[in-house]
Description:
Helices cover 20% and strands 23% of the residues.
Amino acid sequence: xxxxxxxxxxxxxxxxxxxxxxxxxxxxxxxxxxxxxxxxxxxxxxxxxxxxxxxxxxxxxxxxxxxxxxxxxxxxxxxxxxxxxxxxxxxxxxxxxxxxxxxxxxxxxxxxxxxxxxxxxxxxxxxxxxxxxxxxxxxxxxxxxxxxxxxxxxxxxxxxxxxxxxxxxxxxxxxxxxxxxxxxxxxxxxxxxxxxxxxxxxxxxxxxxxxxxxxxxxxxxxxxxxxxxxxxxxxxxxxxxxxxxxxxxxxxxxxxxxxxxxxxxxxxxxxxxxxxxxxxxxxxxxxxxxxxxxxxxxxxxxxxxxxxxxxxxxxxxxxxxxxxxxxxxxxxxxxxxxxxxxxxxxxxxxxxxxxxxxxxxxxxxxxxxxxxxxxxxxxxxxxxxxxxxxxxxxxxxxxxxxxxxxxxxxxxxxxxx
Length: 417
């Protein structure tokens, strides 16, 4: 599942060096460096983790004093929907909105006693590490086999044998991905592509999902600029639905559904927000969220690793423009304490990639960026129709969303030091 840390140092691109190590409890951590002296290899980030953490898969001693093997998280199959539901009870005790001096994603403090932070070095560019509180994890020695809950064949269960990782976009705890430099954004893209490639090669992984949650309204438990990468041992419901639609479309028309959607949006032009040489940003014709925009490559590309050099370079600018436009989408109204000031947008940024094996010829890489904020101080709650029946009701129109995006979209992004 991982490389030998002693040999895991290499250039991903002329601008990014990758260095992998192990944390004290055995989890993998990878630095992605774009600055000197680390990019050239003249210096190396700190690789040892001095925390006295036990091995994460070590036997657990119970209240009776008896040591027992660590329990693997479990998934249960919902026969009414056809979905696997992971039961990650240990996440109830994960870190929740810690004070600034206890931020586990911040670099280690120079000269201070080592805090219980995840990054050993006192600085970093971009870093990826296995989640300390994973909802999906493969426990050594636990076979990925289907069993029956309570002996009932109607209720299949499986180990939740995937992997979840955290990606920190910047060492500044008060920063945001929207405000990183183009060079740093390129490093993030290289890290996403590299982790997707590595996790796609893990036995049993069916799908890799790179995403970012931002804002307390979304449910973020740590405000440090970061995202996550999930490697699922099953196809997610959203992907399953898209694949079903795409296969039916191909049988009916001979075309690729996501390619045909992009071409239809380009012909219409009404909801196209921005275009570049290799990418198109548009609000989908049936957008359901109060703020939503999709970003798709012009070329048929299954996933992030398949992007070529030109597409990756071009993605930097248009993605940063979309993120910065989101932070201009709403402003505080007249008469309020912060009248006229832009509102930092709470959002989910989700990279939809083709599955590892199934459906790669039918599904196509695209980004879905959306927010539950429908107006200043007002959220889109999933009430009875949406939550109970999955029957969506939109509070706006895609055309209004597109018009607003075009109004606030910056013309370009600058390279700052």
